[in-house]
Amino acid sequence: AQKVTQAQTEISVVEKEDVTLDCVYETRDTTYYLFWYKQPPSGELVFLIRRNSFDEQNEISGRYSWNFQKSTSSFNFTITASQVVDSAVYFCALTDTGRRALTFGSGTRLQVQP
Amino acid sequence: DAEITQSPRHKITETGRQVTLACHQTWNHNNMFWYRQDLGHGLRLIHYSYGVQDTNKGEVSDGYSVSRSNTEDLPLTLESAASSQTSVYFCASSETLQETQYFGPGTRLLVL
User: Fold this and answer.
1) Average pLDDT for residues B90-107, to the nearest whole number?
2) CA–CA separation, B7 and B23 (whole Å)
3) pLDDT value at position B40?
4) How many angstroms separate the CA of residue A105 from the nearest CA in chain B?
5) Burial (CB count <10 Å: 0-12, 13-18, 19+), residue A10
6) pLDDT at res. A59
7) Per residue in B28-68, pLDDT tens?
8) How far apart are CA A76 and CA A65, in angstroms?
9) Average pLDDT over residues B79-95
């Protein structure tokens, strides 16, 4: 069975600090896809990134970066120079080649204080 | 622009009533999914469909049903609403496994 663990329930930082959200996953599949979604206070789910299991290259998009390490089954998300608008719940998720549905972690609530 | 919509956005119902939540997407995606979001659990899969006439159960399917009569719609029915089904429900769709799932805005359901 698949599992995604986001051990950090809530993180609070001051604006301009860097913050890393941890994600650890379990799967028996060799082909799988990892995702991060953002859920702002308004409630919608916003797609941030998709990574397949064969691509371990780290990715940077503006202030956001992702570190994928198969050796530790981790897919961590870093926000550099955090802003108040980054305040949200962030979900890590995993899907496999079989079921095509997402298995979500329980989410990390990020509060960025001004 | 293509999109995915859910209706109603908010619903209050009574225990024992049948409730149907609508999900409509205009991307012509084959795959559609229903999830529920509860505090401390993230999102959990209720039902999913790979195409017309195809439906499958997820981890928390008890008390729910879906039907897929066309590509665009996957309505979720609560046969006899229970207080434990008070939750936020999200519908999602994707074209293929390799594609990202995009989510509707959610339906907040309260069962009294």
Assistant:
1) 89
2) 7
3) 75
4) 6
5) exposed
6) 87
7) 999 999 999 998 778 999 999 999 999 999 999 999 999 99
8) 8
9) 96
Mean pLDDT by 10 residues, chain A (114 residues): 93 97 94 94 93 88 94 96 97 82 93 96
DSSP string for B16-40:
T--EEEEEEESS--SEEEEEEEETT
Task: Pick the closest to residue A76 from A39, A23, A25, A26 (CA basis).
Answer: A23
CA of B43: which chain A residue's CA is closest?
Answer: A104
Q: Determine the Cα–Cα distance for residues A50 and A60; give it in Å rounded to an integer.
A: 12
Q: Looking at the partner chain, which of B48, B88, B90 has a beta carbon nearest the beta carbon of A101? A: B48
Contacts of A45 in chain B (CB under 8 A): 90, 103, 106
A51 and A68 in contact (C-beta within 8 Å)? yes
Half-sphere exposure of B12 (CA within 13 A, CB side): 1
What is the rounded distance in angstroms from the CA atom of residue A12 to the CA atom of residue A61? 22
What percent of chain B has a predicted confidence (pLDDT) above 70?
96
B15/A55 Cα distance (integer angstroms):
48
In B36-95, the residues whose Cβ lies within 8 Å of chain A are 40-45, 48, 50, 58, 88, 90, 92, 94
C-alpha gyration radius of chain B: 13
Contact A45 B103 (CB under 8 A): yes
Residue pair A105/A21 in contact by the 8 Å Cβ criterion: no
Tell me if A77 sits within 8 A of A66, measured CB to CB. Answer: yes
